[in-house]
Amino acid sequence: MATKRQKNVWSSEINDIIRGACGGFLFGIPLLYTMEVWWIGSLVKPQLMIMAIALMFIVVWLLNQTEGFRKRKYSGLAYQAAIDTVEAIAIGLVCSAFVLLLLRELTPETSLKESLGKIIFESVPFALGVALANQLLGDTRNNNTDEQATDQENNTTKNKGNELHATFADVGGTLIGATIIAFNIAPTDEIPMLAAAASPPWQLAMIATSLLISYGIVFQAGFSDQQKRKQQKGIFQQPLSETIVSYLVSLLAGAFMLWFFQKLTFSDPWTMWLDHTLILGLPATIGGAAGRLAI
């Protein structure tokens, strides 16, 4: 019994961390594609770094007082919110550092001061997203088990005769979410700059990261009636196949946005289309996952 209870505690903790990280990606990814923040972070003084961490701690602590990123309900103890605030900031720092490494904005040649500045300034929206994840994106249908069970039964019955409609709904949600995010990033100069530094191994890492984050947001983080999504019956409605298809749809949306804003033309080589699209594919995929949550 003790071993089983310990496993449940660790499982719950891992799910909470995944939920927080996914919330951070949903809120923080657009700022990671902003070169002005890279420049500010690389030039910022240590005093401002400390001030940024202090302000971030206060805001995240206040957000954690209401609900935070865990499924448990707070008992009003300030130290619980403080512990979760430290964890939320840590998740934000780790996630922002990982993405900056993936984008080659942090390299072994980058100085420690510059690296810390970039990570701290980029982690602010990530930490806010972690703190807001459960409050804004959590499953609100868990409060009424009977109603949820009835809804799932009715939806399952509908999907048996309406698989095509369910598939088109997911594709449409992915396309809308990916287009909204890509529309804001595609016209900027960051995409060509990042694409120039992305070698094939880093492009493969970008693909893997995009798929993992998309899967985590939709099927692992506990957002927006996750169990119902896993039970959907459609052409591509298995978690793995849905994640792959949604990623391809997000890439198409990203490529179209790059062409729309004349960052790519049909005379450009296919390798240029590939590296630019893969770079934009990460935020587009996260937007597509958010779009699927909204339907």
Describe this structure in words.
With 295 residues, the protein is an all-alpha fold. It is built from twelve helices and no strands. It has helices spanning 2-32, 35-43, 46-66, 78-102, 112-137, 145-160, 163-185, 190-196, 200-220, 226-230, 239-260, 270-294. Helix 1 crosses helix 4 and helix 1 (2-32) crosses helix 5. The chain is globular and about 60 Å long. Residues 140-161 have low confidence and may be disordered.
Keywords summarizing the entry:
mainly alpha, 295 residues, 78% helix, 12 helices, globular
Task: Please describe the topology of this protein.
Blueprint: H1 2-32, H2 35-43, H3 46-66, H4 78-102, H5 112-137, H6 145-160, H7 163-185, H8 190-196, H9 200-220, H10 226-230, H11 239-260, H12 270-294
Helix content: over 70%
**How would you sum up the major sheet?**
none
Spans of 5+ residues with little confidence (pLDDT < 50)? 140-161
User: What amount of the residues lies in strands?
Assistant: under 5%
Question: In summary, what is this structure?
Answer:
The protein contains 12 helices and no strands. With 295 residues, the chain is mainly α.
